[in-house]
Amino acid sequence: xxxxxxxxxxxxxxxxxxxxxxxxxxxxxxxxxxxxxxxxxxxxxxxxxxxxxxxxxxxxxxxxxxxxxxxxxxxxxxxxxxxxxxxxxxxxxxxxxxxxxxxxxxxxxxxxxxxxxxxxxxxxxxxxxxxxxxxxxxxxxxxxxxxxxxxxxxxxxxxxxxxxxxxxxxxxxxxxxxxxxxxxxxxxxxxxxxxxxxxxxxxxxxxxxxxxxxxxxxxxxxxxxxxxxxxxxxxxxxxxxxxxxxxxxxxxxxxxxxxxxxxxxxxxxxxxxxxxxxxxxxxxxxxxxxxxx
Length: 293
Fold this sequence. Notes:
Blueprint: H1 22-35, H2 40-56, H3 68-80, H4 85-101, H5 125-134, H6 137-149, H7 153-158, E1 164-165, E2 170-173, E3 182-185, H8 188-191, H9 205-219, H10 229-241, H11 247-254, H12 266-269, H13 276-292
Protein backbone atom coordinates (compact mmCIF):
# COMPACT_ATOMS: atom_id res chain seq x y z
CA UNK A 1 0.00 0.00 0.00
CA UNK A 2 1.33 3.44 -0.90
CA UNK A 3 2.40 5.56 2.07
CA UNK A 4 2.29 9.32 2.00
CA UNK A 5 2.77 12.38 4.11
CA UNK A 6 3.31 16.02 3.44
CA UNK A 7 5.92 18.28 4.98
CA UNK A 8 4.18 21.44 3.84
CA UNK A 9 2.90 23.60 6.66
CA UNK A 10 4.53 21.38 9.26
CA UNK A 11 4.92 22.86 12.72
CA UNK A 12 8.26 22.19 14.40
CA UNK A 13 8.12 21.16 18.05
CA UNK A 14 11.00 20.90 20.44
CA UNK A 15 9.47 18.45 22.90
CA UNK A 16 10.06 14.71 22.67
CA UNK A 17 6.40 14.01 21.99
CA UNK A 18 6.75 15.49 18.50
CA UNK A 19 8.68 12.34 17.48
CA UNK A 20 5.83 9.96 18.38
CA UNK A 21 5.02 7.81 15.36
CA UNK A 22 1.78 6.08 14.50
CA UNK A 23 3.40 2.75 15.41
CA UNK A 24 4.42 4.11 18.84
CA UNK A 25 0.95 5.60 19.37
CA UNK A 26 -0.63 2.21 18.62
CA UNK A 27 1.74 0.45 21.01
CA UNK A 28 0.92 2.89 23.81
CA UNK A 29 -2.81 2.61 23.15
CA UNK A 30 -2.69 -1.20 23.17
CA UNK A 31 -0.90 -1.13 26.52
CA UNK A 32 -3.61 1.12 27.97
CA UNK A 33 -6.32 -1.23 26.69
CA UNK A 34 -4.56 -4.20 28.29
CA UNK A 35 -4.20 -2.35 31.59
CA UNK A 36 -7.94 -1.65 31.57
CA UNK A 37 -8.66 -5.34 30.92
CA UNK A 38 -10.42 -4.70 27.62
CA UNK A 39 -11.89 -7.85 26.05
CA UNK A 40 -10.55 -9.48 22.91
CA UNK A 41 -13.20 -7.99 20.63
CA UNK A 42 -12.19 -4.47 21.69
CA UNK A 43 -8.54 -5.24 20.97
CA UNK A 44 -9.41 -6.61 17.52
CA UNK A 45 -11.56 -3.55 16.76
CA UNK A 46 -8.80 -1.06 17.47
CA UNK A 47 -6.12 -3.22 15.86
CA UNK A 48 -8.06 -2.99 12.58
CA UNK A 49 -8.32 0.80 12.91
CA UNK A 50 -4.59 1.19 13.55
CA UNK A 51 -3.82 -1.15 10.64
CA UNK A 52 -5.70 1.15 8.25
CA UNK A 53 -3.88 4.22 9.54
CA UNK A 54 -0.49 2.53 9.19
CA UNK A 55 -1.26 1.16 5.74
CA UNK A 56 -2.41 4.45 4.23
CA UNK A 57 -0.31 6.99 6.13
CA UNK A 58 2.71 4.97 7.24
CA UNK A 59 3.68 3.31 10.51
CA UNK A 60 6.86 5.35 10.98
CA UNK A 61 5.37 8.76 10.14
CA UNK A 62 5.62 11.08 13.19
CA UNK A 63 2.35 12.61 14.31
CA UNK A 64 3.92 16.04 13.90
CA UNK A 65 4.35 15.38 10.16
CA UNK A 66 0.65 14.75 9.51
CA UNK A 67 -1.01 17.75 7.90
CA UNK A 68 -4.38 18.63 6.45
CA UNK A 69 -3.15 17.45 3.06
CA UNK A 70 -2.27 14.08 4.58
CA UNK A 71 -5.74 13.71 6.05
CA UNK A 72 -7.45 14.78 2.82
CA UNK A 73 -5.51 12.18 0.84
CA UNK A 74 -6.26 9.56 3.49
CA UNK A 75 -9.99 10.20 3.30
CA UNK A 76 -9.94 10.11 -0.52
CA UNK A 77 -8.04 6.83 -0.67
CA UNK A 78 -10.26 5.19 1.94
CA UNK A 79 -13.39 6.26 0.10
CA UNK A 80 -11.94 5.00 -3.18
CA UNK A 81 -11.46 1.67 -1.42
CA UNK A 82 -15.17 1.53 -0.61
CA UNK A 83 -14.88 2.38 3.09
CA UNK A 84 -17.89 4.16 4.61
CA UNK A 85 -17.75 7.56 6.29
CA UNK A 86 -18.54 6.12 9.71
CA UNK A 87 -15.46 3.90 9.63
CA UNK A 88 -13.21 6.69 8.39
CA UNK A 89 -14.47 9.00 11.12
CA UNK A 90 -13.75 6.34 13.76
CA UNK A 91 -10.21 5.88 12.43
CA UNK A 92 -9.49 9.62 12.54
CA UNK A 93 -11.00 9.85 16.02
CA UNK A 94 -8.51 7.19 17.14
CA UNK A 95 -5.68 9.21 15.59
CA UNK A 96 -6.92 12.28 17.43
CA UNK A 97 -6.72 10.36 20.72
CA UNK A 98 -3.05 9.70 19.99
CA UNK A 99 -2.43 13.45 19.77
CA UNK A 100 -4.25 14.12 23.02
CA UNK A 101 -2.34 11.36 24.84
CA UNK A 102 0.95 12.76 23.53
CA UNK A 103 -0.19 16.27 24.53
CA UNK A 104 0.25 17.50 20.98
CA UNK A 105 -1.77 20.00 19.01
CA UNK A 106 -2.79 18.54 15.66
CA UNK A 107 -2.39 20.65 12.53
CA UNK A 108 -5.44 19.26 10.79
CA UNK A 109 -9.15 19.12 11.30
CA UNK A 110 -11.72 16.40 10.69
CA UNK A 111 -14.26 17.40 8.03
CA UNK A 112 -17.96 17.05 8.62
CA UNK A 113 -19.00 13.57 7.51
CA UNK A 114 -22.45 12.69 6.28
CA UNK A 115 -23.32 9.51 8.13
CA UNK A 116 -26.59 7.67 7.69
CA UNK A 117 -27.68 6.25 11.00
CA UNK A 118 -29.92 3.21 11.16
CA UNK A 119 -31.03 3.11 14.79
CA UNK A 120 -31.70 -0.28 16.29
CA UNK A 121 -34.87 -0.34 18.33
CA UNK A 122 -34.66 -2.00 21.72
CA UNK A 123 -36.96 -5.03 21.99
CA UNK A 124 -39.98 -4.73 24.29
CA UNK A 125 -39.63 -5.86 27.93
CA UNK A 126 -41.52 -9.10 27.24
CA UNK A 127 -38.87 -10.17 24.70
CA UNK A 128 -36.00 -9.26 27.03
CA UNK A 129 -37.75 -11.22 29.78
CA UNK A 130 -37.70 -14.31 27.54
CA UNK A 131 -33.97 -13.81 27.00
CA UNK A 132 -33.49 -13.43 30.76
CA UNK A 133 -35.21 -16.77 31.37
CA UNK A 134 -33.12 -18.48 28.70
CA UNK A 135 -29.82 -17.38 30.29
CA UNK A 136 -28.35 -18.95 33.41
CA UNK A 137 -25.30 -18.47 35.61
CA UNK A 138 -22.66 -15.98 34.48
CA UNK A 139 -24.54 -15.31 31.23
CA UNK A 140 -27.57 -13.99 33.08
CA UNK A 141 -25.20 -11.96 35.27
CA UNK A 142 -23.66 -10.39 32.15
CA UNK A 143 -27.10 -9.35 30.90
CA UNK A 144 -28.10 -8.12 34.36
CA UNK A 145 -25.06 -5.87 34.69
CA UNK A 146 -25.79 -4.20 31.36
CA UNK A 147 -29.58 -4.13 31.66
CA UNK A 148 -29.89 -2.96 35.27
CA UNK A 149 -26.97 -0.51 35.43
CA UNK A 150 -26.37 0.61 31.85
CA UNK A 151 -22.81 -0.77 31.80
CA UNK A 152 -21.05 -1.52 28.53
CA UNK A 153 -20.50 -5.20 27.78
CA UNK A 154 -16.72 -4.72 28.00
CA UNK A 155 -17.11 -3.13 31.44
CA UNK A 156 -19.31 -5.95 32.69
CA UNK A 157 -16.83 -8.58 31.52
CA UNK A 158 -13.90 -7.07 33.40
CA UNK A 159 -15.66 -5.97 36.63
CA UNK A 160 -14.71 -7.88 39.78
CA UNK A 161 -16.18 -8.42 43.23
CA UNK A 162 -13.64 -5.96 44.62
CA UNK A 163 -15.46 -3.20 42.72
CA UNK A 164 -18.72 -3.91 44.57
CA UNK A 165 -19.76 -2.15 47.78
CA UNK A 166 -22.55 -4.39 49.05
CA UNK A 167 -23.31 -2.18 52.04
CA UNK A 168 -24.09 0.78 49.78
CA UNK A 169 -25.28 -1.43 46.88
CA UNK A 170 -22.97 0.29 44.38
CA UNK A 171 -20.35 -0.70 41.86
CA UNK A 172 -17.43 1.56 41.03
CA UNK A 173 -15.96 1.30 37.56
CA UNK A 174 -12.52 2.57 36.58
CA UNK A 175 -10.60 2.53 33.34
CA UNK A 176 -13.63 3.23 31.19
CA UNK A 177 -13.44 4.38 27.57
CA UNK A 178 -13.52 7.93 28.90
CA UNK A 179 -10.71 7.18 31.42
CA UNK A 180 -13.11 8.26 34.13
CA UNK A 181 -14.42 6.81 37.36
CA UNK A 182 -18.09 6.00 37.38
CA UNK A 183 -20.44 4.61 40.06
CA UNK A 184 -23.66 2.74 39.36
CA UNK A 185 -26.43 1.52 41.65
CA UNK A 186 -27.01 -2.20 42.17
CA UNK A 187 -30.66 -3.16 42.60
CA UNK A 188 -31.59 -6.26 44.69
CA UNK A 189 -32.28 -8.38 41.60
CA UNK A 190 -28.75 -7.77 40.37
CA UNK A 191 -27.04 -8.10 43.75
CA UNK A 192 -28.37 -11.63 44.10
CA UNK A 193 -26.64 -12.61 40.86
CA UNK A 194 -23.19 -11.26 41.72
CA UNK A 195 -20.53 -13.65 43.06
CA UNK A 196 -18.74 -12.84 46.30
CA UNK A 197 -15.25 -13.03 44.79
CA UNK A 198 -13.43 -13.01 41.47
CA UNK A 199 -14.84 -11.65 38.23
CA UNK A 200 -18.51 -10.78 38.29
CA UNK A 201 -18.96 -12.63 34.98
CA UNK A 202 -17.10 -15.88 35.55
CA UNK A 203 -16.90 -16.85 31.88
CA UNK A 204 -14.74 -16.02 28.89
CA UNK A 205 -15.99 -13.49 26.39
CA UNK A 206 -16.30 -16.07 23.61
CA UNK A 207 -18.44 -18.29 25.83
CA UNK A 208 -20.68 -15.34 26.74
CA UNK A 209 -21.15 -14.45 23.09
CA UNK A 210 -21.99 -18.02 22.14
CA UNK A 211 -24.47 -18.35 24.98
CA UNK A 212 -26.21 -15.14 23.94
CA UNK A 213 -26.44 -16.24 20.33
CA UNK A 214 -28.16 -19.47 21.31
CA UNK A 215 -30.42 -17.83 23.91
CA UNK A 216 -31.35 -14.99 21.54
CA UNK A 217 -32.51 -17.47 18.92
CA UNK A 218 -34.66 -19.27 21.47
CA UNK A 219 -36.07 -15.95 22.72
CA UNK A 220 -36.84 -14.74 19.19
CA UNK A 221 -34.38 -11.82 19.19
CA UNK A 222 -32.70 -10.78 15.98
CA UNK A 223 -29.04 -11.90 15.55
CA UNK A 224 -27.90 -8.26 15.70
CA UNK A 225 -28.71 -8.37 19.40
CA UNK A 226 -26.59 -11.39 20.26
CA UNK A 227 -24.59 -9.94 23.15
CA UNK A 228 -25.02 -8.45 26.63
CA UNK A 229 -24.67 -4.97 25.11
CA UNK A 230 -28.38 -5.28 24.31
CA UNK A 231 -29.00 -4.63 28.00
CA UNK A 232 -27.32 -1.22 27.94
CA UNK A 233 -29.53 -0.12 25.06
CA UNK A 234 -32.63 -1.38 26.87
CA UNK A 235 -31.58 0.40 30.07
CA UNK A 236 -31.54 3.74 28.28
CA UNK A 237 -34.70 3.07 26.28
CA UNK A 238 -36.77 1.87 29.21
CA UNK A 239 -35.57 4.68 31.49
CA UNK A 240 -36.82 7.23 28.94
CA UNK A 241 -39.93 5.34 27.81
CA UNK A 242 -41.16 4.05 31.17
CA UNK A 243 -39.47 6.34 33.69
CA UNK A 244 -39.84 9.68 31.95
CA UNK A 245 -36.16 10.57 32.27
CA UNK A 246 -34.64 13.05 29.84
CA UNK A 247 -32.15 11.73 27.32
CA UNK A 248 -29.48 14.02 28.82
CA UNK A 249 -30.03 12.40 32.21
CA UNK A 250 -29.74 8.92 30.76
CA UNK A 251 -26.61 9.88 28.80
CA UNK A 252 -24.98 11.07 32.01
CA UNK A 253 -25.97 7.88 33.82
CA UNK A 254 -24.42 5.86 31.00
CA UNK A 255 -21.15 7.76 31.40
CA UNK A 256 -21.04 9.39 27.97
CA UNK A 257 -18.06 11.68 27.48
CA UNK A 258 -20.11 14.34 25.66
CA UNK A 259 -23.79 13.86 26.50
CA UNK A 260 -24.61 17.48 25.70
CA UNK A 261 -24.74 20.85 27.38
CA UNK A 262 -27.97 19.93 29.21
CA UNK A 263 -26.30 17.05 31.09
CA UNK A 264 -26.92 17.12 34.83
CA UNK A 265 -23.33 17.12 36.03
CA UNK A 266 -24.38 17.01 39.66
CA UNK A 267 -25.38 13.36 39.26
CA UNK A 268 -21.83 12.05 39.52
CA UNK A 269 -21.04 14.45 42.34
CA UNK A 270 -24.00 13.04 44.26
CA UNK A 271 -22.88 9.48 43.37
CA UNK A 272 -26.20 7.62 43.54
CA UNK A 273 -29.00 9.92 44.66
CA UNK A 274 -31.20 11.43 43.46
CA UNK A 275 -31.11 10.06 39.89
CA UNK A 276 -29.16 6.87 39.39
CA UNK A 277 -30.88 4.67 41.96
CA UNK A 278 -34.49 5.40 40.93
CA UNK A 279 -33.48 4.96 37.28
CA UNK A 280 -32.10 1.51 38.02
CA UNK A 281 -35.15 0.68 40.15
CA UNK A 282 -37.43 1.74 37.28
CA UNK A 283 -35.77 -0.68 34.85
CA UNK A 284 -35.87 -3.41 37.50
CA UNK A 285 -39.63 -2.97 37.92
CA UNK A 286 -40.10 -3.23 34.16
CA UNK A 287 -38.10 -6.45 34.05
CA UNK A 288 -39.85 -8.05 37.03
CA UNK A 289 -43.27 -7.18 35.61
CA UNK A 290 -42.34 -8.81 32.30
CA UNK A 291 -40.96 -11.91 34.04
CA UNK A 292 -44.24 -12.28 35.89
CA UNK A 293 -46.33 -12.30 32.68
